[in-house]
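Before the break, one more example. Copy the sequence into your notebook; we will annotate it together after we see the structure.
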Amino acid sequence: MTSKGSLAVGEYTRISVEIARKYPQSVLGFVSTTELSSHSPSATRDEDFVVFTTGVNMSSKGDALGQQYQTPTTAMAGGSDFLIAGRGIYAAADPVSAVQEYQKAGWEAYERRVGSASG
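Here is what the structure looks like once it is written out:
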């Protein structure tokens, strides 16, 4: 999904979202880099799918393998509910400090998004 050239885009993604909307009792959410309305805008008012965002990294925008990262701030602003940050944590010199930084950045970004939605 976050690798350059991913096939999970366009019509594939739109149809996946439409199927989930047809069977919401069977689908909790999606692994996605953006909110669902950007893929298929026919959301209902009570729609509440969870969005898990992979490829979150605070120190890199990409790598030689085509991985494309976004920050906790951009992921949350894009509609993410849960951030999945791998390499930015496990490859850090101090993984515990890195986890704390990601947690803080993600929470602050979430609060900004929720605050702006209710304000």
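The radius of gyration is 15 Å. Residues 10-118 form a domain with the TIM Barrel fold (CATH 3.20.20.70). Try to locate both features in your own notes.
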